[in-house]
Structures are given as structure tokens and as C-alpha cells.
Design brief:
The complex is a heterodimer. Chain A is an alpha/beta fold. Chain A has 20 helices and 14 strands. Chain A folds into 2 domains: 151 residues, Periplasmic binding protein-like II (D-Maltodextrin-Binding Protein, domain 2, 3-Layer(aba) Sandwich), CATH 3.40.190.10; 230 residues, Periplasmic binding protein-like II (D-Maltodextrin-Binding Protein, domain 2). In chain A, helix 12 crosses helix 19, helix 13 packs across helix 14 and helix 18 packs across helix 20. The longest helix of chain A has 29 residues. Chain A starts with a helix and ends with a helix. Chain B has a domain of 150 residues: MetI-like (MetI-like fold), CATH 1.10.3720. In chain B, 75% of the residues lie in helices and 0% in strands. Chain B contains 14 helices and no strands. Classes of the chains: A alpha/beta, B mainly alpha. Chains A and B meet through helix 1, helix 4 and helix 19 of A and helix 1 and helix 13 of B.
């Protein structure tokens, strides 16, 4: 019996050692007192790991800071995995701050980067990652939300300029379908899911109203005819209803859609400006025809606007042992690197050069509009209402999928039924969140 | 001997029971899955699940898989019976039938995604046989997509049921068949009067497994359609609640409820089998 107990103790000890060894790996590199520091930068740009772009970037970074070695870790399902991982202390030194983290929790997870008022003089798009006047994240780039358009498809159907009204837009898509039935006028990327959230992002651009999202916080019927969310979803519904989308949305394929668009098989996709270089890369010879346009609508003041919002924000792990080095990398990425330009976005740094895709639009008179910050103390309110309602405005796909399903005749709901239901859910959510 | 059980017990405690206890704990809070703070809300989450019909209506999808279970058991029983008689290359056929069960669910999801896709394998085959007017959007058409998915599930799990049936059939004393043959019983009679009564318990067990399996369908619809277009199941709904709408507390409550339902089904099975064997 004694022997057995001794063995048992031995095995348990071995197990403890084994588990201990797993945990100590990271702290080992931290205690290294030599001059080179190793920091980990976790992000979502998996394509840059495969095509060697991150390696190039870090080579460039090391020219300036030879003593900081950067370990790049990329995750495909970034937002999903990072959320879980942030329950531990080990989420890198520098990382992209997932949008699901509520502003009131920022201080718990990330290092403050400075006063918003000071940083604002230098950078754009700080509003949504600041809380109580302190900034916790700096956008890697700003994206314009609108439509990636293959102008060759439009010109082949005899349409010279991109339409400026939703009616004109739908008519144009119909013309494309008639003239060239092989082409999918608008590809929804229904199956990928996250792509559909881009429809929601266009709302400041359509209205030209900086406060449009803040108004949703108190509007108990935002999905009513005449209001912007109704317009957006109505456009989606009509396009799907008139057979102007891919014929089998359930099995649509995101990677393939970029190739198809580059090869003139798709006319429009509702996405962000970041998608333009990705589509252009798929067929370099056709790159000139891939342009970016605002949602086909004109605001009440007669101008056309395009909404610009922050992409993922760089943030520093509050548990990091290399905060200074991480900050150097952050500053280098924002101030010195071409990250934003290479990704088809607007640079965060004020006064930097705009990417080609947006330059042309600016020349045609489309104004950029950046949504206003949430009212003080209500920074988390939008995501709380959104989660409570389970509508997934700006975040997920279910509502947009539901509209497409109704439009193609897969479900018996009418468009008005859906809008009514959304209004009820939104109003209930405002009530629930308010009562907490 | 204690030693050998220590490691499995530790693994079981760490990866099964500890998470379960935590999940019960989460289900009583409004935790969003990452916030440092959460509030205790008592049984409110359970109340929400039981009072809001949208959470339970997805069990309708499970019906497709439940009905499919019977086809699955039928095929499995058919092949098991055939292969329990003398057949050429018996081991080869056993391998063929069991193979799908060895495949990873994700791989199966992708194989069948391309199989059902518009102008995919199935459409090509049907065109070859001149059946092009029968072609549908196998996953896009709501009247048929759950059947397509349930078929995938049948394809995957038939091998497993087959193996269980085969084992049960082979445990029947061969002398019984010989005696039956002497008495002039044909193959059908042997099946009806020897095999079926001999594997009654196993058959019943498989049906019960089918019930709990069809309640917790997850990987195939999640990979192929991610629960869109009317293919949502309770587990996918739970995942969405937890990770898309950040209601981890509510999702934990849903998971606990599913666990309870499965336990109830299992208890019914236990009680029923005990009564049967007592008779």
C-alpha cells in the first residue's frame, strides 16, 4: 500500500511539474535581462503571414528599433478567439482590441494610451475606443463603408456613372442582369455572415448625420419607413427579391467572390474600402476597374457622404511586461508604416495621404463623415441594447440573412413583418437595458 | 489499481465536472463572456428560455434528424443482417460501411457542402442521368435543406449503428440458426424470429441514442449552413447566444436545459430497459 501511495505522489508531482512547465514558458522570456526584448503582437491579418508582408514590416521596424524582436501571431477567427483568450493574462503585448469589449471594461484589459484631447490633435477616429476622456486604442486604419464596384461590368451594360439613388441603383442592377445574364449584379456573401454587417455600417453615409447611431439609443422604432435602417434593409430586400443576387446564397463563398469580382463576374459587393486591394490583387490586370463608391443615396442636404469608421484598434495588454516596447511598435505602425495604405484604408495620422480608391471619390464631391462619439456615460449602451435585442446590428448576420430569405421566398414573412418584429425587439431591448 | 484510474479521473474532473459546475454558476449570472464583472440574476435566464418561444421553436429542426434516425437504423440493421450471413469480402464491406464514422465532422461538412452546392457533384451527376429538371438548391431551398443535412448525418452515423448491430447479431448463438434452418425457416423468418428478438435491447438503445443525438445536432449544420435559412438547431442557437450576442449566462442556462432533457431521455431508457429485462 505504501509503495502505491509513493507512486501516486510521484505521478502527481510529475503532473504538477508538467503543468508548471507549460505555464512558465512565457514568463521565461520576460525575465531575460539582455538588451533585446521580445514582444508578441497578435492580430487578424492572416493573409500577411502567408504572403510574407509581416516579415517585411518587421524587418523595416527593426531598422529603427534593432533591440525589439517582434513575434507576430495571427488568428483566423480573431474576434471570437481573442474574446475567450482575454479571460487570461496572456493575450500578447500589442494586440487588436476586439469590438465586443465594452468601453467601461477597457481599463481592466488594456493600458491607457493618453488623454483623448491630446491624441486627437494628431490622430483621427479615436472616439469609439475612448472612455471618460482617456484613449485606450488607436485605430490601425479608418475604413470607408460602401460598395466595392466593378465599373467594367457597369460600363458593359451601358451605365457610365454609378447611380446616386437607391431606385437608380436597382434599375442599374436590373439592366446589368438583362444585358449580361452571366453576371451576378450584387453578391451578398450570405454564407460568410460577417460580410453582411457592412450594410449596417453605411448608415451615417446615407443620412449625412453624425449622430445617427446615438439617435438609435432612444429611438424605439428605428426600423420604420423613412428611417435609414429601413432604407438599407429595403434595398437589400428588393435586390434579393428581384433576383439580382447570387442564385444560391447559402453556399456562397467569400474567397471565390473576390476572384469572381476581379474577373468581371460580379458587379457590386457591399463592403469596406479595405476590400478594394484584396479584389485588385486577385486580378492585377483588371485593377483599374475595381473602384469604391458610397451607398447610392443622397442626404437631405443634397450632398453625398461616405461613412468612415475605425478598423481594429491597436491596444497594449495591461498585463504586459514590455509596455514601452509595445508602445514603440504601436507608434511605428501608426506613424511610420504604410499599414493603412496597404490595406485600402485611410491613415489614422492626420494629414497623411489617402489611398487611390478613395481619392477618386473625394474628387467627385463625396464628403467623408465620421460618426460622433456616444454621449458621456453611454459609451457601452449601444452594444448592450444591440446584444439584448439579438438583432446584431453592426455585428452579426442573422437579421440580414432573414431579410434575404424572405426576399427570395424561402420564408413566408413579408418585409413589413420583419421590420415590425425588429422594432419590437429594439424597443424591448431599450427597456430591458434601461431597467438594469 | 487505483493508480490507473487517477489520470482518467483527474482528466474527467478537470475537463468535465469542473466546467459543468462553472457552467451552472454562469447560468445564474448575466455574464457576457469576457467582462471582469457580472451580476447574479438567479433563475432569470431559465425563465427567459422557457417563456420566449424563439428558443424552443428550433427543436422543430431536430424532428428532421429524429425521423432520419429511423432510416439510419433501418440501413444499419439491413447491412448488419446481410453481413452476418455468409457474404464474400465481408470484412471489406464492413470497412466501407464504417469508414464515414471515422471521418472528422468538419471534413464531412465540407465534402457535402461541395456535393450539394449549385453545380456541385450532385447536380453534375443528376445532369449526367438526364435529371436536370429535378435539380434543386439542395441547401438553399428551405423545403429540402434540412433533409439534405439530415441525409449527411445518416451517411455519417450509419456505420456506427451498423457496428453495434453487427456485434449484437453475432453474439446470438449460431446453433440457434442451424436449428431454425433444420426446421425450414428461411432468411426472413430467421430475421424476424431470431435476430430481432435477440437484439431488441440494442435496437431500443439505438433509438434512444438517436433521440438524444437529434436533440443536440451541431457540427454538420454549423459547418454547412451555420444554422441559416431554417436549419438552426438548439446547440447552434446556444453558441450564437453566447458568442454572437454575448449572453454567456443565458447560453449556459440553455446548455444546462439541454443537458437535463438528455438526462431525462436517458433515464426513461434505463427504466424502460430494466422493466423489459425484468419481464
Amino acid at each position: 500500500m505504501k509503495k502505491r501511495l509513493a507512486l501516486l505522489a510521484g505521478v502527481s508531482a510529475a503532473l504538477v511539474l508538467l503543468l508548471g512547465a507549460c505555464g512558465s514558458k512565457d514568463s521565461g522570456s520576460g525575465s531575460a535581462k539582455d538588451k533585446t526584448e521580445t514582444i508578441t503582437f497578435i492580430n487578424h491579418k492572416t493573409d500577411w503571414t502567408t504572403n510574407g508582408k509581416w516579415k517585411e514590416y518587421m524587418k523595416e521596424f527593426n531598422k529603427k528599433y534593432p533591440n525589439i524582436k517582434v513575434k507576430i501571431e495571427t488568428i483566423t477567427d480573431y474576434a471570437g478567439q481573442m474574446k475567450t483568450r482575454m479571460n487570461s493574462d496572456q493575450y500578447g503585448d500589442l494586440f487588436m482590441l476586439p469590438d465586443t469589449i465594452k468601453p467601461k471594461d477597457y481599463a481592466h484589459f488594456v493600458e491607457p494610451l493618453g488623454k483623448k484631447a491630446t491624441l486627437e490633435k494628431k490622430y483621427l477616429g479615436l472616439t469609439n475606443k475612448s472612455y471618460n476622456g482617456t484613449t485606450y486604442g488607436i485605430p490601425s486604419q479608418l475604413n470607408a463603408s460602401g460598395m466595392v464596384v466593378n465599373m467594367k461590368v457597369f460600363k458593359d451594360a451601358g451605365i457610365k456613372t454609378f447611380p446616386k439613388t437607391t431606385e437608380g441603383f436597382i434599375k442599374a442592377l436590373k439592366t446589368i442582369k438583362e444585358k449580361n445574364p452571366e453576371v451576378t449584379p450584387l453578391y451578398t456573401n450570405y454564407a460568410a455572415g460577417w460580410t453582411l454587417a457592412n450594410w449596417d455600417f453605411t448608415r451615417p453615409g446615407i443620412t449625412g448625420d453624425k449622430q445617427v447611431t446615438n439617435k438609435l439609443l432612444t429611438d424605439k422604432a428605428p426600423f420604420t419607413k423613412g428611417k435609414v435602417m429601413y432604407t438599407i434593409y429595403d434595398t437589400l430586400y428588393q435586390v434579393a427579391h428581384d433576383g439580382l443576387i447570387e442564385s444560391d446564397p447559402t453556399t456562397s463563398d467569400w474567397e471565390q467572390s473576390k476572384v469572381d469580382m476581379a474577373n468581371n463576374k460580379i458587379g457590386v459587393m457591399v463592403l469596406g474600402s479595405w476590400a478594394v486591394p484584396q479584389v485588385q490583387d486577385a486580378n492585377k490586370e483588371n485593377a483599374d476597374n475595381i473602384t469604391f463608391q458610397t451607398f447610392p443615396a443622397t442626404a437631405k442636404d443634397g450632398n453625398q457622404y461616405i461613412s468612415v469608421g475605425a478598423d481594429y484598434n491597436y491596444a497594449i495588454n495591461v498585463h504586459s511586461k514590455h509596455k514601452a516596447a509595445a508602445r514603440k511598435l504601436l507608434n511605428w505602425l501608426v506613424n511610420d508604416s504604410d499599414y493603412a495604405k496597404d490595406n485600402g484604408g485611410l491613415p489614422t495620422l492626420k494629414g497623411a495621404e489617402y489611398p487611390e480608391a478613395l481619392k477618386s471619390m473625394q474628387e467627385s464631391g463625396v464628403k467623408l463623415i465620421e460618426p460622433a462619439a456616444a454621449p458621456k456615460g453611454k459609451e457601452s449602451l449601444f452594444s448592450e441594447i444591440d446584444d439584448a435585442s439579438e438583432i446584431g446590428l453592426d455585428t452579426t448576420d442573422k437579421t440580414k440573412q432573414r431579410i434575404i430569405e424572405a426576399a427570395v421566398g424561402n420564408s413566408k414573412e413579408s418585409f413589413n413583418d420583419i421590420m415590425k418584429d425588429l422594432n419590437t425587439k429594439w424597443a424591448d431591448a431599450i427597456k430591458t437595458v434601461g431597467s438594469n | 489499481m487505483v493508480l490507473f484510474t487517477v489520470i482518467p479521473v483527474i482528466l474527467l474532473l478537470v475537463f468535465s465536472y469542473y466546467p459543468l459546475v462553472k457552467m451552472i454558476q454562469y447560468s445564474l449570472t448575466d455574464w457576457d463572456g469576457f467582462s471582469p464583472s457580472s451580476n447574479f440574476v438567479g433563475l432569470k435566464n431559465y425563465k427567459t428560455v422557457f417563456t420566449n418561444p424563439t428558443y424552443f421553436s428550433v427543436f422543430r429542426t431536430s424532428l428532421y434528424y429524429f425521423i432520419a434516425t429511423f432510416f439510419q437504423l433501418g440501413f444499419a440493421l439491413l447491412f448488419a443482417t446481410l453481413l452476418s450471413f455468409k457474404v464474400k469480402f465481408a470484412n471489406f464491406w464492413k470497412g466501407v460501411l464504417f469508414f464515414p464514422y471515422l471521418l472528422n465532422g468538419v471534413a464531412i461538412g465540407f465534402i457535402f457542402l461541395y456535393f450539394y452546392k449549385q453545380q456541385g457533384t450532385l447536380d453534375t451527376v443528376m445532369n449526367f442521368f438526364g435529371l436536370h429538371n429535378q435539380i434543386k438548391l439542395w441547401l438553399g431551398d428551405r423545403s429540402i435543406n434540412n433533409i439534405s443535412l439530415a441525409f449527411t448525418s445518416v451517411w455519417r452515423y450509419t456505420g456506427f449503428n451498423f457496428l453495434i448491430f453487427l456485434g449484437a447479431i453475432q453474439s446470438i448463438n449460431p446453433e440457434v440458426y442451424e436449428a431454425a434452418e433444420m426446421d425450414g425457416a428461411n432468411r426472413w423468418n430467421q430475421f424476424k424470429y431470431i435476430i430481432i428478438p435477440g437484439i431488441k435491447e440494442i435496437l431500443f438503445l439505438n433509438i434512444i441514442l438517436g433521440v438524444s443525438g437529434s436533440l443536440s445536432v451541431f457540427d454538420i449544420p454549423y459547418i454547412m449552413t451555420s444554422g441559416s435559412n431554417g436549419t438552426n438547431t438548439f446547440v447552434i442557437q446556444t453558441i450564437d447566444t453566447a458568442f454572437k450576442y454575448n449572453k454567456l449566462g443565458l447560453a449556459s442556462a440553455m446548455a444546462i436545459i439541454l443537458l437535463l432533457i438528455v438526462i431525462v431521455v436517458t433515464v426513461i431508457q434505463r427504466v424502460a430497459t430494466r422493466e423489459r429485462s425484468a419481464n
